[in-house]
Amino acid sequence: MPKYNWEARTRTGGAQKGVMEAASGEIVEAQLRRFGFSSITVTETARGLQFKRLSFSRGGKVETKELVVFTRQFATMIDSGLPLVQCLEILSSQQENKTFKDILVKVKESVESGSTFAEALAKHPKAFDELFVNLVAAGEIGGILDTILQRLAAYIEKAQKLKKQIKGAMVYPITIMSIAVIVVGVILVFVIPTFAKMFAEFGGELPAPTKFVIGLSSFLSKYIIVIVAVLYGLAFMIKKYYSTAIGRKNIDRLALKTPIAGPLIRKVSVAKFTRTLGTMVSSGVPIMDGLEIVAKTAGNKVVEEAIYGVRSAISEGKTMAEPLAACGVFPPMVVQMISVGEATGAMDAMLNKIADFYDDEVDDAVSAMTSMMEPLLMVFLGTTVGGLVIAMYLPIFKLAGAVGG
User: Fold this and answer.
1) Is 39 left (phi over 0), alpha (psi -120 to 50) or beta?
2) Is pLDDT at 233 greater than 90 in this prediction?
3) In angstroms, rounded to a whole number, what is the distance separating the alpha carbons of residues 138 and 348?
4) How do the residues of the chain divide into helix, strand and coil, expressed in percent and rounded to 5?
5) Which of 6, 288, 306, 308 could form a disulfide with 329 if both were Cys (CB 3.0 to 4.6 A apart)?
C-alpha cells in the first residue's frame, strides 16, 4: 500500500504533518477531514525502486528513544487541540517499530471503546510502566495532559542519561579485565608449557617464581574444565540467591558498603528517588501513591524498604523527613532539604533541585571512578603479564650468567 505525506491545519490553526498509508490520496484527505483538519495537502511519497526491507526482531521491545519521541509528539498534538483518538491514529500510522505500532493501535481501540487513556496504556506494561500510567491518569484528571507528557518525556530522557552514564563507567574496567584474563590464560595454557619443556631439557634448579608459574600453568591445563564449571556454578548460585528476598537484600546492602561503587550507587539511588517523586508530586499524583511507585522502581532492596518505611510513617501522621533520617540510607543534606520543602509547601521544586544536584554528583563520581581505575587497571595488567614474562626469562638469564662466568 502506498504512503502519502500530508500537511494540514488543526482546529486551532496550528500546522501539522505526517505520513499515512492508504489506497489513494483521496482516502487520506477524507480521513484527515474526518479528524478535523483543514487546508490539507497530500502528496504520494516517491516510490523509485522497491526493495523488501529485512526485519530484524528486537524481541518485542519498545526503545526508550521511541517512547520519548512518541511522548513529545503526543504532547504537541494534544496542546494543538487534536482529539485523543486522532493523535493515536496519526502517531501509530507513522510508527516504524511494528511492536510499538501494534501497541498504539490497541491503545486507540481501547480508548474508542470507552477506556480512559491511562487505562488503555496500563494494558501494555512492557511499553508503559506504572509511573507513566499514573502520571497520565493525573494529567487526565487535572486537564493538563500535554504538560504531564512534556514532563514525562523530560524525565525519561534524564533517567536514560543517568543509566547510560553508569553503563559507560563499567565498560572500560570490564573490557580491560576481560583482556587481562584472556591474555594471561593464553600465556599460561599455550606459552608456558613450551618453556617448561625447554627448561626440563636444560636440567638444573629453577627459580621459585618460575616454578610457581609452571605449576600454575600445569594446574590450569589439567583442570580448566573443572575451573570453568566451578565458576559457572558459583555464578548460578549467586544469581539464585539474589532472586530470593533475603539474598537480594544482603547483596544490595553489601553493594552500598563497597568502597568505590557504594557511594556511586547511593548517589544514583538518591537522584532516581528525588527525580521520580518530584515529577509525580508536581504532576498531582498523591504522595502515598508516588512513594509506592518510587519504591517499586528503586532498583535496590535496601532503598526500596527504606522508601516503604517512609510511606508507612507518613500514613501514621509523620513528616517525610523523620523516617528518611531514621533509615540511614539518604544523606543528611537530602533529609534537610526535603524537610525545608515540606515546611514551605514546595516539595516538588525541592525534590527536583536535589535530583539536579545529584545528577551532577553522579557525573563527578563516574569521572573520578574512571580516572582512578584507569591507572590501577594498567598497573594490574602490566604487573600480571610482565610478572609472567620475567618469571620465564629468569632461568635464561641464570643460564647466560653461568655460561658467561
Assistant:
1) left
2) yes
3) 15
4) 75, 5, 20
5) 306
| CB-based contact 299:290 (threshold 8 Å) | no
Residue 297, CA atoms < 13 Å, CB-side half-sphere: 19
| Contact call for residues 378 and 178 (beta carbons, < 8 A) | no
Kindly state the average pLDDT of the residues 227-231.
91
CA distance 47 to 103: 28
CB 262 within 8 A of CB 271: no
- For 7, phi and psi rounded to 5 degrees? -130, 140
- Which residues have a Cβ under 8 Å from the Cβ of 310 and sit 6 or more positions away? 291, 320, 323, 324, 327
The pair phi, psi for residue 83, each rounded to 5°, is -65, 155
Q: What percent of the chain has pLDDT over 70?
A: 91
Residue 113 is placed in which grid cell?
Answer: 471503546
CA 313 to chain CA centroid, Å, is: 30
Number of Cβ atoms within 10 Å of the Cβ of 177: 13
